[in-house]
Amino acid sequence: MTTPSATTGGSATADRIVRHALPDRLLHWLCAACVLILLGTAFLPIVGVAFGWVTIHWVTGLVLGVGVLLHLVRVLARGSWGSMWIGRADIADALDVAGATMRRALPQRKPGKYSVAQKLIHHAFAVVVLTTLVTGSLMLLRIDTPWWRRNPYLLADSTWGIVYVLHGLAALVLITMVMMHVYFALRPEKLKFTRAMLLGWITRREFDENHDKQRWRVDP
Amino acid sequence: MELFRVSRDIYGREVLQGMSWDLLWVFVGVGCVLIVGHALYRLILAPKQR
What we know:
The complex is a heterodimer of chains A (about 220) and B (about 50). Chain A is mainly alpha-helical and about 220 residues long. Chain A has helices spanning about 20-45, 55-80, 90-105, 115-140, 155-185, 190-200, 205-210; strands at about 5-10, 15-20, 200-205, 215-220. Chain A is built from 7 helices and 4 strands; from the N terminus they run ββααααααβαβ. Chain B has one helix at about 25-45; strands at about 5-10, 15-20. The interface between A and B is medium-sized, with 27 and 26 residues.
C-alpha cells in the first residue's frame, strides 16, 4: 500500500536507482546557470566590475522564467506535485533529526526520496526565485525590449519602490541560499545527491542506507 | 548602515529606490557564518553519519 507521502518515479537496475531523470537534471543546471549569471550581472557592477549588464540580465531572467515554467509543466504532467509536500512523516523526521542533534546521536528515521531539509530548501528557492521573476518581469516594462517601448509610468513611484525592494531583497537572500546550497552539495556525505544531479542515479546501497523504501517507491 | 536606498522626486518627496547595496556583504557574511558554523559542528560535535 502506498502511504500518502510516498513518492514514486524512480526506476532501478540491479545496483543503480534513478533519482533524477535527464530532463529534470537539465532543468536544474539550466536554472542554476541562470541564477549564477543573474547574480553576477546584478552584483558585479555594484562591487566595481563595470560592464554592460542590463541586456544579459534580463535575457537570462527570461530564460530562467522559461526554465521554471517547464519545471512546473513537467511536475504537473507527471503528477509528482506531492513529492515535495511536507506531510506528517516529514514533520516526524524533522523532530527525529532535532532530537538526535540534541542528543548528539544519529536520527532513527529515514526519509523518502527527499529529506525535510531538501524540501524546505526547494520551497525557499521557489519563493525567492518566483519573487525575483515576478518583480523582474515588472521591471522589464521599464526598459526597451524588442517587443515593447519602456513605460516607467505603469505604476506609481511608491509602488515601483516596493517592487525594487522585493527584487533586491530576494536577490540578496539568493546569495546566502546559493552559498549554502553549494556548500551542502560539496559536503562528503551529500556528494551522492550531487552525483545524482549530475548523472541521475544513486546506488542500491545508498538507497537502502538513506531512504525509507515505503516512502520512496522505486519501480523494480 | 542603511537598509534602503532612497532619492527625492521633483517635488522633494522621498522615493524608495530599493535595498541598500551595503547589505550585500551582510548576506555574504551570513552565508559564511552558517557554512563555517555547520562545518565546525560536523567536525567537532556531530556523530559520524551511517
